[in-house]
Specification:
Layout (H helix, E strand, L loop, with lengths): L1 H22 L1 E6 L9 H16 L3 E6 L6 H12 L4 E4 L5 H10 L4 E5 L8 E6 L1 H15 L4 E6 L4 H17 L4 E6 L6 H13 L4 E4 L5 H8 L3 E4 L12 E7 L2 H13 L6 E4 L7 E3 L7 H15 L10 E2 L5 E3 L7 H5 L16
Parallel strand pairs: 1-2, 1-3, 3-4, 4-5, 5-11, 6-7, 6-8, 8-9, 9-10
Antiparallel strand pairs: 10-12, 13-14
Helix pairs in contact: 2-9, 3-4, 5-6, 5-10, 7-8
Length: about 350
Amino acid sequence: MKLLQLLIVTLSVMFFSTAYAEDKVKIGFIYVGPTGDHGWTYRHDIGRQDVQKHFGDKVEIKFIESVPEGPDAERVMRSMANDGMDIIFATSFGYMNGMVKVSKEFPDVKFEHATGYKQGPNLATYGLRLYQARHVQGVIAGMMTKTNKICYVGAFPIPEVIREINTYFLGAKSVNPDVEIDIIWVNTWYNPVKEGEAAKVLITQGCDMVAQHTDSPSPLQVAQKEGVFGFGQASDQIKFAPKAQLTATIDDWGPYYIDRVQAIFDGNWNSGDYFGGMNDDDAVGMAPFTNMPADVAAFATKIKEGIKNGKYHAFTGPIVDNTGKLQLKDGEIASDLHLNTMMYYVKGIDAKVPGS
């Protein structure tokens, strides 16, 4: 009798252990850069850590960093799907076409692509309205520049980066009609040496306000060394340049990741598109305003609050591109589709979008 009871208990433990293991949600993250870049990938990995803290041992998470866009990314996605992942997050624009292809091969796996615009039955897209914070940076730059020359270190000419160059310039132009902008494309998301060299060239050309859409603090560090100012990228980078950083955009991906994993547990995950902003639980945040006069900080705060409460929209017409084409008519607010496919420079930017 005792042997039978022991057998029943043993089988029960095995059953519940197996059921518990099967109830775990398996999650994959694919990063374009290293988790220590202190920028884009660093903030996505903070979001991953938030998921782990929130769900504990109910989830099993795997992440792979520094995955190049292209065939390597597609291979990693397919490998994760074959490993039984329930949901896979791919965190760079260049992963889009590969994820579309792989998602069709694995219809039972949920796929999520950051900054893309192509969805499917099991493929969702997500992003943040980082242009909101960038516009505030532009306002600060326009008020503080002494040379009337601001600049931008760009990674790749994709809609997200073009959009932020435009909003940065529009913000500066709104307070300083004489401002000009120079842009250098480094064709990399993370290469501290190239990023720093680009910033140095731009400063040599007269720029005294350095913005960037690359992921290391190198341009900001160069700004401090050269005695000018700049802005942190994706996270508060003031510790790298305490005398140069004016503020920084802070990406908060954690709440979105937690919501989407919870949807897997609840069985109600759906495809769609998420575009979080300043008014979405501070999904887009900003570091404290530092190294600037009180009147600049006060005005920047006013613009930030206007964006947050929905009374101020950075992309409100009339907006004309630098070829003279009307892109947004008077009073028109840019739609998400317009924002996510933006491949033009606004009037006043004396440059051509690469590849256009």
